[in-house]
Write a structure and sequence with these properties.
2 domains; 8 strands; Nucleoside Triphosphate Pyrophosphohydrolase; 207 residues; eight-stranded mixed β-sheet
Length: 207
């Protein structure tokens, strides 16, 4: 959640997100009516807390409804003593940089710092954007078109700690990496991270 974001706006965003997904994918007329009503409730909340009119808000919703946009995947590069922090993914047993899909209501910095903490137990501070990749150019995704944003993060505190999503968390030497979870982290990404460590003036890499 954004700092100082009012709770009414957080609720309105969540209701709108649920309604948009339902309207985009539901085929049942009764469910469509319910999702439409959820969208109206979201608009009513916003109108009641702002100078905007409900009709104008709904019109804005209709412009965006169902529009396919890329998802955003944030990943944190955390280095200690020349080794890189990786987490084991419960879904495939392979390893990746800590991170995941971006949530609504957070800045990119907040997202990656939260994801690293939740998945690895490490409190970090995002320092620099190392790379922005079109994931579909690296590993075509079956359901989503995604942009992957890689942040270099400084360790503040903590030790590698597994979570319900990540059964193992470790620092690895670049010469002894475990099997990677390719849709999440691949060798190209790791090579770019270590290139930045070797050259602090290296510009951000992007597709």
């Amino acid at each position: 959640m954004e700092k100082d974001t009012p709770q009414w706006l957080t609720f309105a965003r969540e209701i709108y997100t649920l309604s948009q997904a339902g309207l985009a994918y539901s085929k049942n007329d009764f469910d469509l009516e319910r999702y439409q009503r959820l969208q109206e409730i979201s608009a009513e909340i916003i109108a009641g807390q702002s100078a905007l009119e409900k009709e104008a808000i709904l019109e804005s919703f209709s412009i965006q409804a169902g529009y396919p946009t890329p998802k955003v995947d944030v990943r944190g590069a955390v280095i200690r003593d020349g080794k890189i922090l990786l987490v084991q993914e419960i879904t495939d047993g392979r390893w990746s940089l800590p991170g995941g899909w971006a949530d609504l209501g957070e800045s990119p910095q907040e997202m990656v710092e939260r994801e690293v903490l939740e998945e690895s137990g490490m409190t970090v501070k995002a320092q620099k954007v190392l790379a922005v990749y079109d994931s579909n150019r690296v590993n075509p995704l079956e359901f989503y078109h995604a942009y992957k944003v890689i942040f270099l993060c400084e360790i503040i505190s903590g030790e590698p700690t597994p979570s319900y999503e990540t059964p193992d968390v470790r620092f690895f030497d670049p010469a002894g990496l475990p099997p990677l979870s390719p849709f999440r982290t691949n060798q190209r990404i790791l090579d770019e991270i270590f290139a930045h460590l070797a050259d602090s003036g290296r510009p951000t890499s992007f597709d």
